[in-house]
Structure to design on (632 residues):
């Protein structure tokens, strides 16, 4: 059942078009994450859903109701800001109670709701404090608490964890995931962070320059990226791209020419072989974590530039005839910079993109 | 502990400024406790028998006490009204875009660029034709034209420094514009509002030119009365200085009370 629906939403600031027609829908209880490079319009889109930004064109529905031109407060959404946006002159209690007071709820109900939110977020000992007497993580919790007291239909988060340090961030990430499960609420979440996107999302919306590049579950985006942009954006470290030319085609295989390949050639089995012609330029995508070191059947012959040990795993930076290649491998291979590096890959893990960058 | 030359020079400079600005003030207060003979003594006497005669004289003079009450009424209303009228204007200027906004802003600022004396005659004629001469109202109205720009100027700046996210969070919480103004902007803008209120009050309290031009007797303010002592053959310095002290005292106390609000960084902790 569709709970949130964006229908060809556009946003212009004067002559500048920032959101160029975004459509998608989310089911009730779904956790949707917007990702994309800085400036692609994630916040703008989120703020349009909240009603803080006018929609230039298109329609917006929440719970079956057209709210395109509805007042923010009447949309029954709540938002957690990157800056937390706590009222500095009010206590934690008053911060959380503010929305309920605006709704003219009876005092007893306000107390009960705030107490409930404080219990869920472990804020009980802090209720009398002012925001300035809280740590970053506590402030973040209050901001989340403020958003849950009113039982909104839709939760919006704009990079809520980006101001926290790494440890607190992963802790809060788990808490948000728990909160989502226990409230069963629909959430839209904006982030830069790969891990947040992959772990929290039921569905990820990848945006670029005001347009949707792909929508799908984290594993769908990882396994079948629609284009080189999504392929490069999802996954860390980034997917390696190698340009190659089609030199022969078969019914279910392609022969690719490229200086980086062992013997200058790579044979790829693919059901999409029919879509390529001899002479086409293709982009071959290889994920760093899929490449294997010193395999039985090497695909790439390169030279090691340098290696970074991450403790349990090692990141290798290699160079050959073409583009530099990054490899993520378990353990600590006994290799020195300048050593020859042979890499292999399971053929099922080879991604192919056409000249326009679209998946073959 | 080593004390750098820079610090010493700094201290000397500060001392010089403090002495320079406080000396006339001390002189006035001291003179208000002297007899006329001590005041006129040359070289000046530093040690003298203090006397309260001057104060006794001015407080028994209904002209002085009446003038102080007039000053209080005029300054209090001019301050109150300029804050009441100026802060919503500042809110609009700080947070909304509307046609003519920059012109309006310039008009507020440029108001202060005209020399007051230029407008004294037109305002006098205006007040006369409206039968407002020698009333509290005319002074309050004239002072508003000076105070509102100060309030708008200072408070707009203060409001602009409040993170816009707060307003948006409040909008999502269901607050209307007036509630946002009252519950978010007024408390967080308090330091700026206090500063502008001090300026307004001090200006209205001390203002002499318009008070001199627009009042006769009923609405005469304290500075006018202090100068009116200078009309005789012999200048009653003790009375003038005592009146001066009485004029300066309330503003000093007022400034001390509100200055505590000025330094409190209220917006701390709002955002990361
Ligand atoms: N008021 C405005 N006037 C003109 N352009 C604006 C305005 N607000 C935002 N933009 C532009 O809209 C684009 C999208 O901004 P937005 O804040 O949505 O990006 P974002 O994806 O959230 O970026 P980030 O990840 O850095 O937060 C940016 O290029 C920005 O410069
Ligand atoms: Mg943003």
């Amino acid at each position: 059942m569709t709970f949130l629906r964006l229908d060809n939403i556009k946003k212009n600031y004067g002559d500048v078009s920032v959101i160029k027609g975004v459509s998608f829908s989310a089911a009730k209880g779904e956790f949707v994450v917007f990702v994309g490079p800085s400036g692609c319009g994630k916040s703008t889109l989120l703020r349009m859903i909240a009603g803080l930004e006018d929609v230039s064109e298109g329609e917006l529905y929440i719970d079956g109701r057209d709210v395109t031109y509805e007042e923010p407060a009447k949309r029954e959404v709540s938002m957690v800001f990157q800056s937390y946006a706590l009222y500095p002159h009010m206590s934690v209690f008053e911060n959380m109670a503010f929305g309920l007071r605006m709704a003219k709820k009876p005092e007893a109900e306000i107390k009960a709701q705030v107490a409930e939110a404080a219990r869920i977020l472990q804020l009980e000992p802090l209720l009398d404090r002012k925001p300035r007497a809280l740590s970053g993580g506590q402030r973040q919790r209050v901001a989340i608490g403020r958003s849950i007291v009113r039982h909104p239909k839709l939760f919006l988060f704009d990079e809520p964890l980006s101001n926290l340090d790494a440890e607190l961030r992963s802790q809060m990430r788990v808490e948000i995931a728990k909160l989502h499960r226990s409230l069963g609420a629909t959430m839209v979440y904006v982030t830069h962070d790969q891990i947040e996107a992959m772990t929290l999302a039921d569905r990820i919306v990848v945006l670029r320059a005001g347009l949707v590049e792909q929508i799908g579950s984290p594993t769908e985006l990882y396994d079948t990226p629609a284009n080189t942009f999504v392929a490069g954006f999802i996954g860390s470290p980034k997917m390696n791209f190698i340009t190659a030319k089609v030199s022969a085609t078969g019914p279910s295989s392609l022969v690719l020419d490229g200086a980086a390949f062992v013997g200058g050639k790579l044979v790829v089995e693919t059901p999409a072989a029919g879509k390529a012609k001899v002479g086409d330029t293709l982009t071959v995508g290889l994920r760093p974590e899929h490449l294997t070191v010193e395999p039985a059947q090497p695909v790439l012959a390169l030279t090691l530039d340098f290696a970074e040990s991450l403790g349990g795993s090692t990141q290798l930076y290699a160079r050959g005839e073409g583009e530099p290649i990054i490899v993520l491998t378990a353990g600590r291979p006994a290799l020195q910079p300048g050593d020859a590096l042979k890499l292999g890959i399971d053929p099922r893990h080879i991604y192919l993109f056409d000249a326009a960058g679209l998946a073959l | 502990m080593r004390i750098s030359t820079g610090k010493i020079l700094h201290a000397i400079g500060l001392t010089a400024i403090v002495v320079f600005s406080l000396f006339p003030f001390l002189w006035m207060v001291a003179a208000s406790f002297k007899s006329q003979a001590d005041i006129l003594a040359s070289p000046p006497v530093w040690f003298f028998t203090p006397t309260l005669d001057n104060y006794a004289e001015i407080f028994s003079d209904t002209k002085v006490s009446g003038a102080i009450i007039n000053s209080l009424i005029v300054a209090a209303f001019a301050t109150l009204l300029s804050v009441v009228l100026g802060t919503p204007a500042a809110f609009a200027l700080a947070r909304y875009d509307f046609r003519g906004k920059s012109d309006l802003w310039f008009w507020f600022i440029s108001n202060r660029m005209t020399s007051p004396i230029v407008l004294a005659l037109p305002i006098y004629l205006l007040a006369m034709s409206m039968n407002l001469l020698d009333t509290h109202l005319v002074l309050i109205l004239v002072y508003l034209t000076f105070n509102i720009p100060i309030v708008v100027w200072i408070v707009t700046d203060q409001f602009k420094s409040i993170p816009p996210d707060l307003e948006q969070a409040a909008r999502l919480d269901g607050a209307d514009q007036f509630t946002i103004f009252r519950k978010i902007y007024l408390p967080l803008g308090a330091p700026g509002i206090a500063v502008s209120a001090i300026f307004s009050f001090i200006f209205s309290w001390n203002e002499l030119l318009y008070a001199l031009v627009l009042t006769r007797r009923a609405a005469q303010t304290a500075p006018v009365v202090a100068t009116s002592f200078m009309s005789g053959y012999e200048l009653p310095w003790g009375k003038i200085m005592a009146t001066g002290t009485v004029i300066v005292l309330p503003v000093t106390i007022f400034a001390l009370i509100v200055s505590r609000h000025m330094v409190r960084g209220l917006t701390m902790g709002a955002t990361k």
Remarks:
- Helices of chain A lie at 42-50, 92-102, 107-120, 136-148, 166-183, 194-200, 218-223, 228-233.
